[in-house]
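Weekly sync, protein design subgroup
Attendees: M.S., D.O., the rotation student, P.L. (late)

Item 1: inverse folding check
M.S. brought a backbone from last month's batch and wanted to see whether the design step gives back something sensible before we order anything. D.O. pointed out we never logged the input encoding, so this time it goes straight into the notes. Structure tokens as presented (181 positions):
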């Protein structure tokens, strides 16, 4: 199976063709639940509401899965550099989604930052409350530290103290930004 399959479009197509589901609320919400940008200006408000509900539920389900199983099993990023790419970090600083496909050789830290930035695309207050109850941000910052230490100590010759300290400074900045009141 193609690793780059558009699972939202595939799901909507299967519902439409195999199960005769034709309701735009359902098809649009499934098709676009995982897209960074949505090209639809004139949609009914109820379609947008359903879309935001599906998007929030999808993010929340993934957050809980990552928390329970660990981010280390979920990323395809093989780049073990001790750094966060500038574009991912700027996305975080600007409180917008990370464009994963625009990063050349993304790192494991970029993936965790992508997860952190999902919260900037959460629509419902209830979703935010569940994220807080589940300590999602605390878990993700802890994962950044865990991955940094694992890479540093598993192969000490591949990293420098300067690289490690620079990454730790970025993690502190992320943590300060997330938890400042």
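Designed sequence read out in the meeting:
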């Amino acid at each position: 199976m193609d690793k780059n399959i558009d699972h939202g479009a595939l799901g909507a197509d299967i519902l439409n063709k195999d199960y005769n589901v034709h309701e735009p609320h359902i098809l649009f919400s499934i098709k676009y639940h995982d897209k960074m940008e949505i090209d639809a200006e004139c949609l009914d408000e109820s379609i947008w509401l359903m879309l935001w509900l599906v998007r929030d539920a999808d993010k929340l389900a993934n957050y809980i899965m990552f928390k329970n199983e660990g981010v280390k099993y979920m990323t395809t990023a093989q780049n073990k550099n001790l750094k966060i790419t500038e574009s991912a970090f700027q996305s975080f600083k600007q409180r917008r989604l990370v464009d994963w496909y625009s990063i050349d050789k993304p790192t494991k830290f970029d993936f965790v930052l992508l997860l952190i930035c999902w919260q900037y695309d959460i629509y419902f207050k209830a979703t935010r409350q569940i994220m807080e109850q589940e300590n999602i941000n605390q878990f993700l910052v802890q994962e950044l530290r865990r991955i940094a230490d694992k890479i540093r100590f598993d192969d000490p010759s591949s990293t420098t103290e300067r690289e490690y300290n620079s990454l730790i400074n970025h993690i502190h900045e992320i943590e300060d930004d997330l938890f400042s009141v």
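Discussion: The chain has eight helices and no strands. The CA atoms of residues 25 and 43 lie 10 Å apart.
Action: P.L. to compare against the previous round before Friday.
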